[in-house]
């Protein structure tokens, strides 16, 4: 079994460093091109001209190869940056999943015994149903907001907080359909936490 550790910050830093190296090499190649590709013969004889032509041809071949290497380098840096982004996204998704799994593990016993979580906010009531908001966690958590009432329906009550948290707001009451009748009342707000809220 192989072990691989990939830190997105390190991959991003490596991609930046490689991009800087590529820029420096490209600048050096551009600076070297004019004096090496247009080499002047040392003398007026045929051998000097052939030597200058040979070195000029090698310099031009080098410039072609260095342009291809620069393209490959740019693709490699782009792939490394994309990989860093993919690792970062996977890490965030994994952390959220682990956090939710841990919260579910902590809340499962109290939810089963008492019908409310130990830690966490209560669920909001659905709009247009007059549903009450869920109670917040016994230790920490805000109560959920009550759902608004439908036509001819009262708004839902806000959920209560436990020891620490704010009670949920009551839902707005629905409108009356009969002429001359007032709209229905909104739901009551949830109780704040016993210690703070």
UniProtKB/TrEMBL annotation:
<dbReference type="Pfam" id="PF21526">
    <property type="entry name" value="PGRS"/>
</dbReference>
<dbReference type="InterPro" id="IPR048996">
    <property type="entry name" value="PGRS_rpt"/>
</dbReference>
<dbReference type="InterPro" id="IPR038332">
    <property type="entry name" value="PPE_sf"/>
</dbReference>
<protein>
    <submittedName>
        <fullName>PE family protein</fullName>
    </submittedName>
</protein>
<dbReference type="InterPro" id="IPR000084">
    <property type="entry name" value="PE-PGRS_N"/>
</dbReference>
<dbReference type="Pfam" id="PF00934">
    <property type="entry name" value="PE"/>
</dbReference>
<feature type="domain" description="PE">
    <location>
        <begin position="4"/>
        <end position="93"/>
    </location>
</feature>
């Amino acid at each position: 079994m192989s072990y691989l550790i990939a830190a997105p910050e390190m991959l991003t830093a490596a991609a930046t460093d490689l991009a800087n190296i590529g820029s420096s090499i490209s600048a050096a190649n551009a600076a070297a091109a004019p004096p090496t590709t247009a080499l002047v013969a040392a003398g007026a004889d045929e051998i000097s001209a052939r030597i200058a032509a040979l070195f000029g041809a090698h310099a031009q071949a080098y410039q072609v190869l260095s342009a291809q290497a620069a393209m490959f380098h740019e693709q490699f840096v782009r792939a490394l940056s994309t990989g860093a982004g993919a690792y970062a996204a996977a890490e965030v998704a994994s952390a959220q999943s682990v956090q939710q799994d841990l919260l579910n593990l902590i809340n499962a016993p109290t939810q089963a015994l008492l019908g409310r979580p130990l830690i966490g906010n209560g669920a909001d009531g659905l709009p247009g149903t007059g549903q009450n908001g869920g109670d917040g966690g016994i230790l920490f958590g805000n109560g959920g907001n009550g759902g608004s009432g439908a036509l001819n329906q009262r708004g839902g009550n806000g959920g209560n907080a436990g020891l620490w948290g704010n009670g949920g707001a009551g839902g707005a009451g629905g409108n009356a359909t009969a002429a001359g009748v007032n709209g229905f009342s909104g739901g009551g707000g949830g109780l704040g936490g016993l210690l703070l809220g």
